[in-house]
Every structure is written in structure tokens, then in C-alpha cells.
Amino acid sequence: MNNKHRVKSFLSRELIIIFLLGLCVNQALAQDLDSLYTQTMLKNGAQAPDFMIDSVSNTHLSDFRGRYVVLHFWASWCPDCRKEIPEMNRLYDEFASDSVIFIHISFDTEREKWQNYLGESGMDGIQLCEFKKMKESATATAYGIKWIPSVYVLNTAGRVILQTVTTEKLRKRLQLLDKSKVYIPRSKREAEPTFPGGDDAMMLFLSRNIKYPRLASNYGLEGQTLLKFLVNTDGSISNVRVIDNKITKEDRLPFRTLPEEEKRAMRKKVLALFAEEGIRVVESMPRWKAGVRYGMQMKTEYELPINYKIQYKNDN
Q1: CA 77, CA 73: separation in Å to the nearest integer?
Q2: Cα separation of 150 and 266, whole Å?
Q3: pLDDT given for residue 20 in this prediction
Q4: What is the pLDDT of residue 33?
């Protein structure tokens, strides 16, 4: 081996050594942070104290037994918390399911700032806030939280299997979860909201209640309006809006005889009528069966296409 190759080989070994040293330093740092900031937290094997998750459905933490639970204590005013949110979002995307629930417990004291940051950060999962300072929070006291961000992982029996202040340790523990131990009663499994009587009943309701816009019928225009709306926890519908609206068929007389400029104006009018009628009929629906997520009834967005199709006598 010539000197040039020896130099390259030496540099490669040096870079590998430096890289390995870097890994050791990071692991040691994570260990040191936990040794400093988890001393007052619950130890492995401890039963997690119960608390209210949702007062409307009377859901408590203990109702999630049978699933794994990540408890993330944080606040929007905390710089270290904000720094960790992107990684927390990645962990949610990778591990969250009906079997692994993420619960974010904030120590914010101002509702507007908390809600604004949730919107900005895109942090998903169950969001809780007592709007009390950490030292005044009963939950913080019960869980021995003196530092944020802090995280627990609870097993399917509701017992602590990890307490940490680092997302690195959280990721490693989530990778080791044994999903075969998960047991979710049928009544608490994730479910989409449903129209009373199911899809067939909803199609019958639409067919009986949609009033085909006369202008569209007169000119033989057909279309599809895609609506999105919220099904609330009580089954009521709100926030109905159109997210797509299009003409699907316009090949019949007398529409074809119109000048092109009038055709454009006619399409615009008919699409507005399709949208208006779609919103009207959805808002007139009876209460649905609410969607279930994490074992709780929750507000759920639902998409519904409404097809406007003229039934001619010679149609099959």
C-alpha cells in the first residue's frame, strides 16, 4: 500500500472513530438527561394514576386499558418542547393506531395561545389542558412532572414501562411494543360515523330528498358534488362545505345548441345549484351514529359524493 492509500485508510478509520464517539456522546447525553430529570417520575411497573380524558363521553385514562398509551407532558411556551414537536409528530405518524394512543397534556394557561400552537404545529392525538401552571396541576403532581417535555409509555395494563425526557428513548421503546398483547373490546374499536340504518338507508334518504335543480334538468346537465362535513359526538352534522363540484355530462339537447359563452354561464349557474342543493339535503339529515376513535366518540370529518343523474325513460 502506498502512502496515499495509507493516508486515505487512516482518514477513513479516523472518521469512523469520530462518528462512533459522536453516537456514544449522544447516548450518554440522553442517559444523563433522564438521570437528571426523571427522578421524581413514576417508576417502571407503577400503576398510572387515572384522570379524565373527555367529560362529554365520561372517558378516563383507565378506559384505554388493553392499548398502549403515550403520555406527553409539554407546553407551547416551552422552547425544549417546541424543539421536540417535529420528532413527536414523526413518531405519531409512524406508531399511532387504535392500539397505540398518544395523549398530549399541556401546561399552557392561555387557551388561545394553546389552540393556535396546536394549529401551527399539526400535533395529532388527544389534546388535554387544565389551563393551570405545572406546579398547580393535579396531573403533574400525580405523575411527578418537574420538567417538560416529559413522556411516559404505559402498557396494556396501564402500568409504566418507560419514563423519559428524550424522544430517542421513546422511539426505541415504541419499536419494542408487543402488539399481540393489545385487546380492544368491539364496542371501543375505531369506527367511522354512520347514517342511521347504514349506507343503503342513506342512499334511500338522498334519493327521496334531493330535488334535481330544474335548470340543470331542462338543459340535460348532470354532475357530482363532493361534500365534506363534521359528524359531532352527538351525531349532529355541522360545517358542511363543497370541496369539489363538476359537470359530468352535457351531451344532450338543448345545451349543445347554446353559444359557447352561454354554455360557460350555464355551467356556472348549474354548479352553484348543485352545491346549494347538496348542502341543503345534508343539513337536513337525521342524527348519525358518531365516529369512534381511541375508544371515544369523537368529531369526525366525512366526505360524501352526491351524483346528479337524470333518469330518462329510455335509460336502462
Answers
A1: 12
A2: 60
A3: 44
A4: 85
Name the DSSP letter for residue 63: G
pLDDT at 185: 84
Which of 91-98's residues contact partners 24+ apart within 8 Å by CB, and which partners? 91/167, 91/170, 91/171, 91/174, 92/123, 92/124, 92/125, 94/174, 95/174, 95/177, 96/124, 96/125, 98/67, 98/184, 98/189, 98/190, 98/293, 98/294
pLDDT at 298: 83
The cell for 170 is: 421513546
What the block records as the C-alpha cell of 283 is 343539513
pLDDT, tens digit, 9 for 90 and up, residues 118-177:
999 999 899 999 999 999 999 999 999 999 999 999 999 999 999 999 999 999 999 999
* Contact (CB, 8 A) for 50 and 62: yes
Q: What is the DSSP string of 208-260?
A: HH----HHHHHTT-EEEEEEEEEE-TTS-EEEEEEEEEEEEE--STTGGGS-H
Q: What pLDDT score does 57 carry?
A: 75
For the chain, list residues with pLDDT below 70: 1-31, 312-316
Query: DSSP secondary structure string, 118-145?
Result: HHHHT--SEEEE--S-GGG-HHHHHTT-
Domains and CATH numbers, the chain: 34-188 (3.40.30.10), 199-308 (3.30.2420)
- Asked if 177 and 68 touch (Cβ cutoff 8 Å), the reply is yes
Q: What does the pLDDT read at residue 9? A: 46
Characterize 79-101 residue by residue with b for buried, 16 or more Cβ atoms within 10 angstroms of its Cβ, and e for exposed: eebbebbeebbebbeebbebbbb
- Residues near 306 by beta carbon (within 8 Å), at least 6 away in sequence: 206, 210, 224, 225, 226, 227, 274, 278, 281
